[in-house]
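During the no-cost extension, the postdoctoral fellow (Dr. R.K.) reprocessed legacy sequence entries with the updated structure-token encoder. One reprocessed record is reproduced below for audit purposes.
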Amino acid sequence: MGGIESAIAGASVVIFAATASARGDPRLVDNLGLEATAKACIAAGVERLVVVSGAGVTKRESQAYKFLNLFGRRMDEKVAGEQAVRRLFAVAPAHQDYTIVRPSGLLSDREPLGAAGLELNQGDENAGFICRADVAAVCIECAFSPAAAHASFECYIQGTATATQNLRVSAILSNPTAAEVVKFVMREESRSSAPVITGREMRASEFPALFSKLQQDKPRRT
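Re-encoded structure tokens follow.
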């Protein structure tokens, strides 16, 4: 067996959290690498593929999208990878599915909040900050949630949401010093961008309830 096939052999859940390094090739990792992983999961009978993508991947005119796309068209490749997963699982056996998680503003220097401190949203309209440990918890919990099958959603700390359409580069940087430098160099406005009220804001004290109102990207197959 090849590399991917060997890595997922016998697994019921696979979490794809890879992304190209700053000097890497996003097409090979975020797009073709993800597509190859999805194909391998389907062939191996994996029940759930969880993909860690990113908020704002559909907002081509935002500052954040344009900035990140300078590095090997990173955002374009993430979108292509997401689309490949949806296309492949649309014709996969009915017991196999995926979940796409879109975090942003990853924080490493604070304690996780758990389900009660997070908000989910859908439609790629809002982004916010979130602890890396909380992203990991979301990925693990949604992997076993029937409600999260064939769904894509954004996750962030309650009260940190900002509109992805107007997402500034400084808003996606977890390092405060780097964020301030970017604000100065790019002459970003100091005021924050208010979140979009989507009607899909989801809050709950436990993960199962947090996922319970997710809408599928496509209707569930029977």
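Strands lie at 13-16, 48-52, 97-102, 106-107, 118-121, 126-127, 130-131, 151-157, 162-163. The mean pLDDT is 89. The remaining legacy entries will be reprocessed before the final report is submitted.
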